[in-house]
Amino acid sequence: MAFNPRRIVTDRTSDGTSVFAEQTDLEPGTVMIMPGAELFNVWGTQDGIPVVGAGDNPPTVPFPFFPGPGGTRLVVVRFPPDSAGADSTAPNASPEEMMAEAEDKQPGLAHVFEPDNPGMHTTDSIDYGICVDGEIWLELDDGAEAHVTPGTFVVQRGTRHAWRNKTDRHCTMVYVLVGAKRTSG
């Protein structure tokens, strides 16, 4: 079954009538720092308490990839097999060019990744991840892993982690990110 992200957005008119504000197929975004991956920025809300109703301010893309406290993001990521990564990189791009391109296309995404531990990152968010196609491994500290298959729900609570696709086909994950405030301890 093909998974082709499509966005349908509802709204209300000034007299309170519910309407379809948008219906569109989503095009994937790519960044050189994640070779072969496709990212679909579906929706997001501003930080703080979301507002609904006629005349609210819908998001514009690109928005900061990770929300601040109270903000949300709905993102689809199609992960390529790890083995495909080395073959997909831009041959003439410097690390600085790759970071600049990522910042332009997906603001804030690149800076969470650890340069000395490929794929490992930590975010100040609660992430609800749902595997809808393929399979992937969620890696935590010290190499601890969980195998994620279709129908698996992951609640990622601001911990250091990486996604590893050890198969020979893409894995599609849907994420809802909720911006959080990090505390010590």
Automatic annotation (TrEMBL):
<dbReference type="InterPro" id="IPR047142">
    <property type="entry name" value="OryJ/VirC-like"/>
</dbReference>
<protein>
    <recommendedName>
        <fullName>Cupin domain-containing protein</fullName>
    </recommendedName>
</protein>
<dbReference type="InterPro" id="IPR014710">
    <property type="entry name" value="RmlC-like_jellyroll"/>
</dbReference>
<dbReference type="InterPro" id="IPR011051">
    <property type="entry name" value="RmlC_Cupin_sf"/>
</dbReference>
